[in-house]
Amino acid sequence: MRVRGRWRLRHTNSTMVLLKKRIPGASAALFERFVRRACGAVKLKGTVNVVITSNPEMRSLNRRFRGKDAATDVLSFPAVPGLPGGLVGDLAISGEIAADNAKQLGHTVEDEIKILILHGALHLAGYDHETDRGKMARKEAELRVGLKLPMTLIARTDQQAGAASTRRRKP
After folding, report:
1. Structural domain containing residue 111
2. How far is CA 152 from CA 10, 43, 167, in A?
3. Number of structural domains found in the chain
4. For 128-141, what is each residue's pLDDT tens digit?
């Protein structure tokens, strides 16, 4: 369905996906199905909304909610507990960063967005890779296999950090 010109919106009982950034070959319906699968795997019950948007909007959201003045790949916004309607939370994803990462890593933009949806769903379920000593990374890796996704966000970030560390240590 067209909303405000170029945005594509799809909504069901369990999720709403808003494509504010065009993803060639992908549709809101495709991501909606994956959100349901990822939320089921993570054991989230309720509504999860996803917006796939631009770097400027992600930068604005990141600055407003995290105090970081830079675009980022995915942001998770847990719902306020006790609200009626079963809202679990919202995810915001940069279509531009997803496209860049996909190209760099040799997989599709569709797969990259699915990786980011899974990562965001884990945050909505209460996981926090910055403080949980690898618990989220292990869960993400386990779910990645079941959901048939390429290397997860945390795994490749750790891998890149290790490679950078190794390069710095060489004489």
Report:
1. 2-127
2. 26, 18, 23
3. 1
4. 988 888 899 999 99
